[in-house]
Amino acid sequence: MYITTWEMDQDLGTGYHQRFLEWLKQAQTDDITVAGALTDAKGDRTKPPSQQEDKDVFLHVVEKRAGGIVVRGAKLMICGVAAANEIFVLPGTAYREEDADCAISFVIPRDIEGLTIVETRHPSDRRDEEDGVDNPVAEGGITQAFLLFEDVFIPNERIFMCGETKYTLPAVSNFIMPYRSAIGGCVAGQGDIKIGAAVLTARANGLSAKVFRDKITKMHINNETTYALGIAAAAKGRKHPSGAWLCDPLIANVNKVYVATLPYETSVLAQDIAGGIAETGCMPSYKDFQSTKYGHLIKKYMTAKYSAETRTRAARLVEWTTIGGGVPGCRAC
Amino acid sequence: MYITTWEMDQDLGTGYHQRFLEWLKQAQTDDITVAGALTDAKGDRTKPPSQQEDKDVFLHVVEKRAGGIVVRGAKLMICGVAAANEIFVLPGTAYREEDADCAISFVIPRDIEGLTIVETRHPSDRRDEEDGVDNPVAEGGITQAFLLFEDVFIPNERIFMCGETKYTLPAVSNFIMPYRSAIGGCVAGQGDIKIGAAVLTARANGLSAKVFRDKITKMHINNETTYALGIAAAAKGRKHPSGAWLCDPLIANVNKVYVATLPYETSVLAQDIAGGIAETGCMPSYKDFQSTKYGHLIKKYMTAKYSAETRTRAARLVEWTTIGGGVPGCRAC
Amino acid sequence: MYITTWEMDQDLGTGYHQRFLEWLKQAQTDDITVAGALTDAKGDRTKPPSQQEDKDVFLHVVEKRAGGIVVRGAKLMICGVAAANEIFVLPGTAYREEDADCAISFVIPRDIEGLTIVETRHPSDRRDEEDGVDNPVAEGGITQAFLLFEDVFIPNERIFMCGETKYTLPAVSNFIMPYRSAIGGCVAGQGDIKIGAAVLTARANGLSAKVFRDKITKMHINNETTYALGIAAAAKGRKHPSGAWLCDPLIANVNKVYVATLPYETSVLAQDIAGGIAETGCMPSYKDFQSTKYGHLIKKYMTAKYSAETRTRAARLVEWTTIGGGVPGCRAC
Amino acid sequence: MYITTWEMDQDLGTGYHQRFLEWLKQAQTDDITVAGALTDAKGDRTKPPSQQEDKDVFLHVVEKRAGGIVVRGAKLMICGVAAANEIFVLPGTAYREEDADCAISFVIPRDIEGLTIVETRHPSDRRDEEDGVDNPVAEGGITQAFLLFEDVFIPNERIFMCGETKYTLPAVSNFIMPYRSAIGGCVAGQGDIKIGAAVLTARANGLSAKVFRDKITKMHINNETTYALGIAAAAKGRKHPSGAWLCDPLIANVNKVYVATLPYETSVLAQDIAGGIAETGCMPSYKDFQSTKYGHLIKKYMTAKYSAETRTRAARLVEWTTIGGGVPGCRAC
After folding, report:
1. Are residues C174 and C280 both part of a single domain?
2. How far away is chain D from the Cα of A26, in angstroms, using its nearest Cα?
3. Complex-level ipTM
4. For residue D247, what are the domain limits?
5. A155 and A260 share a domain?
6. Is residue D12 part of a domain?
7. Element of type H or E holding C174
8. CATH number at residue C273
9. pLDDT digits (tens, 9 = 90+) for C243-289
10. What was the pLDDT predicted at B187?
11. Does residue D300 lie in a domain region?
């Protein structure tokens, strides 16, 4: 919102930018963690807010008071809320004049009155928790939340947009462009883990990584592509008068296309290298491994070049990053 | 084994084919279900059985008696055992003379003495079981088993190969070629379900399937490709003197390549059409849906053009076929 | 037209089918070669014939006489005319009632009064003719013609459709479906030549084909795919009441997509294996090879494992099939 | 050679760098054009120079004199020689000690005694020259030459490497890395021309560019990818102690892979949009267009939404960039 509030101040003298800067300084002083909340429930995807049967499917102002506003609605699939001190709410999309009630941005503490946070499930979550081989991730892990706003009061000093529909498109765009650039590095890092886990599984099977050289090269290419396009979007960016740096939107958007496709190709290659266990996620349960009756047999037959445990942990990591909880949501960005 | 036992009878006068036919007729008369077991534990993948530290990683004969043989080892990742009356064991690969003990084929009842069957887990299995929206699959579902043979006695009349290493390559090949042809139709059918589930999710979101026309066309193309290559492998096949039909091996092998790649591309397209929920499998739990405190809010915000339940069921089906238990193991075939 | 004229006879009692059969029998007796002419000039692609500024851009009837019709217009990009005894003209697309004048089909001798045939050029044609290394193709080669009809009289006994617009769509479709099936074999054959020429060039360079195994495998896969889909479209076809065999339209259309893409990928692989000379088509002229001053130097430096002549001929064949006159027109089919 | 000569001076005190700088300053003062010559004839690709039957297939020193060296051999496929004042010769690959005679670098005027330059042909070159629609390129155009060195004397002050085999790998690498980065922008520019020419042809046919939106987007993505990876390789580079900038080799090498594949995909898309004429390069000759007998008919039937001339020129440009003389040699780089 840095750029958007700066522009609103320049154009309209709203004072949002000054307010935003004050909050930002305090946030940096207190060294707090902030989650960004963008996506509304959206209801019928073909209709704008004002034509929705249930007006609440877009987060909106239901009451204006002297000291602030009251908002109702929801923000869905919000990452990192469980680990955040505060939640920064952005308009979910560009709005027209008739939907001015939805053109809102503000920041709130996570435990604000009237906000219910429901963490979603993710693939194989119960299995991850119970499975002995994955103990190290018993605490922490993936979080993605539904934020349910039941008439939450936002005080004025926490509001950075309220009805200025003209600025919703830039606000979203200023958020998306660096996001589409930066996520290239994020999925590249995940891709590097896929390479490591796949190669480890192959070695545990007794196979040299050389056998898979072409596939590993292709995985590296995929990783470096999304990373490098993010770098290029930044390098070809420009300084905004507010002092912020704007990524090149064309390259950022090209990166979105790759981020939405290459990680899935990399996953298929990781499964290909790791073999059937990782591909289908089918393997005996940890409980079976521990069985006094036949656990020793499972360990015996899961052993290859390396131990059953090494193979299982490696294959589970490939599974986790390719069809499990670690699959990134890259296509919605 | 039809062709292989026929050839062994022709060449060596083993009597295996006659024995096989007798079993086959009885199996057809009794209308039993049979699971095929091919894959050994394999141990260190770079070594043949005779050089493995643990000889048992390939199923092999440990004792020959007058009335039969005793076998030890394991067959892993075997589908359909839970629903089968009998299990048909094949040699897992081509063997050389020094590994003649592993060149075995036989058929056994599932509850034979000395055989332990351990069903594997699969992605999101616990979630599938507990999750209210998937209740219809509470019984049945995916099965894939580890078969652990602890000195199992196989009577002579159930043995179709025992030491004839020269026939192990044809036996495996005669199994694989029709398999690689037929699996094209299998994944095409799964692909059709992906199309249906993805389009249903899109419609529930309020979006017309027309928006995704190019993607749906690509999914159809992928499905028809593996299906048509299977048909072509059969059409260009030839009749073996035993009476069996042999698929064209070149086309069957080309189909293997597509079966190992196109379904994954189709999955990505399905997720792309269905959107973020299906892509990451992240959505509130069934328990949260039922909450008396905020369950109504989750339903409210999950509602789009169609109800929250419809969307959730549709998205879960996309998830199940693309990153869940329904993912086929296509690359090992 | 076999099926279409049969249906017209069944529905309308036109007598076209009987007439067609008589021509067909005579054509078979005389063992003549026939070129099929489908594509009209089409003018502005967004307009039907009746709205075109120049009515002649679709071949049409300009006069009806007792003994026949007079037609004007053009058929463009028609293959094989130079080697044909007769030309079989089909409606170029489906027409509506107001464009009934264009709904015509007939067969004519190539030297009919009023027809001008202009052969088109093709890539590197002059070079092919002059270049000493390609002497064997001095006669023959690629032909693709513009047929210009300036008020050509077609006698009744040579007409198989004249105004029956309802049958234009089936006529085109009955032509296209077997075409889309059969062209899969055509481009597969060309693809096999690309493999051979590329491998020959590599060997002439001193490189083993093993180095390129993955690329050659991919080329084979591409070739077999279009071939097998054609086979499958036929195998899943059905017998039409007229006695003709109808290909499965879904599989035939899937093949169209592959035929429009895979040969180009195969070409890139062929160039990749053959190296820079084949990729860019840049090499000294035959005249330079013959130079008494420096021709010996060119031969000296073009020599690798095999002679300069072998390398040049092989590379020229790769060039010819990938960026030269041998490039098939696959996307318009 | 800037970095390599600097390092040789640092390590060996050769004085090459000082010599190189003096030449460079003069070259800049005189504002001359320089062509770089890298690729040797190479003979049997599996053998190093010392094992070649004909030693001359790698350019090498045949005599050392007080004032300089005499070299024999060839440099092939050298671009831009026709327009260059001087030719800068680099070692063609990394050499071992036994091939020290080949470890040479020097710069020469184009008209030096003993050097024969033979320009190669390129696809459709004769056609380009004669074809009336392409008259504007009658002068200039593509050049790629064979440089034949018959005992050419190189004076000492023009030599920058002579026998220092250890520096041949860095010399080649320092050339290749910025090349692989920069060529991304080169083929992106060609790709933009393909888009423009394809869209122009489509419009001339009467079709809106909207119809091809997905294909044009894909073309843009391809162009921006090679361009952005070049930018990223530079942005992630580092300053060498000599003052030169070194590109990131990993990203530069990833770009090589894209440069060797994406332009060919872009070409296929351009042909797809432009249609059959551009795909096959088949169209009437300019001479036919001028025919007093039927030239008016060709123009009449080549006319679509726009004139025959516009369509022909546009289609020829697509042809030229996709299967003609404008095809870049991207895979050898």
Report:
1. yes
2. 34
3. 0.91
4. 170-322
5. no
6. no
7. helix C168-204
8. 1.20.140.10
9. 999 999 999 999 999 999 999 999 999 999 998 888 888 889 888 99
10. 95
11. yes
**Which distant-in-sequence residues (6+ apart) come within 8 Å of C114 by Cβ?**
C149, C150, C151, C152, C153
Co-location of A151 and A228 in the same domain? no
pLDDT digit string, tens, across residues B46-105:
999 999 999 999 999 999 999 999 999 999 999 999 999 999 999 999 999 999 999 999
Same domain, D176 and D277: yes
Are D82 and D215 in the same domain? no
Q: Report the C-alpha gap between A113 and A68 in whole angstroms.
A: 14
**Other CB atoms within 10 Å distance of the CB of residue B170:** 15
The two structure tokens encoding residue D323: 């299967």
Q: Which residues contact B95 (CB under 8 A, 6 or more apart)?
A: B48, B49, B102, B103, B165, B168
Q: Do C127 and D130 touch (CB under 8 A)?
A: no
Name the average pLDDT for chain B: 93
Asked if D286 and D132 count as a contact pair (C-beta separation under 8 A), the reply is yes
> In angstroms, rounded to a whole number, what is the distance separating the alpha carbons of residues B250 and B233?
8
In a domain, residue C12? The reply is: no
Roughly how many angstroms between the first and final C-alpha of chain D, as a whole number? 18
Q: Alpha helix locations (H) across B61-212?
A: 125-130, 168-204
Query: Nearest Cα to C60, choosing from C73, C50, C75, C51?
Result: C73
**Which residues on D lie below 8 Å from C264 (Cβ)?**
264, 267-268
Same domain, B185 and B301: yes
The residue among A117, A142, A163 that closes a domain is A163
| Domain co-membership, C126 together with C59 | yes
Number of structural domains in chain A: 2
User: Would you state the structure tokens that stand for residue A297, as one six-digit string?
Assistant: 């047999």
Distance from CA of A12 to the nearest CA of D (A): 37
Which parts of chain A sit beneath pLDDT 70? 132-140, 330-333
Quick check: D229 and A234 CB within 8 A? Answer: no
- Residues A225 and A90 occupy one common structural domain: no
Q: Is D198 inside any structural domain?
A: yes
Q: Residue D127's pLDDT is what?
A: 80
Domain boundary among B163, B191, B219: B163
Of D118, D281, D332, nearest to C294 by CB-CB distance is: D118
Structure tokens at D243: 């003052």
Selected residue of C216, C218, C219, C221 to mutate for chain B interface (largest B Cβ count, 10 A): C221
Cα angle: A260, vertex A261, A263; to 5 degrees: 95
The CA distances from residue D4 to D25, D107, D166, in Å, are 17, 15, 10
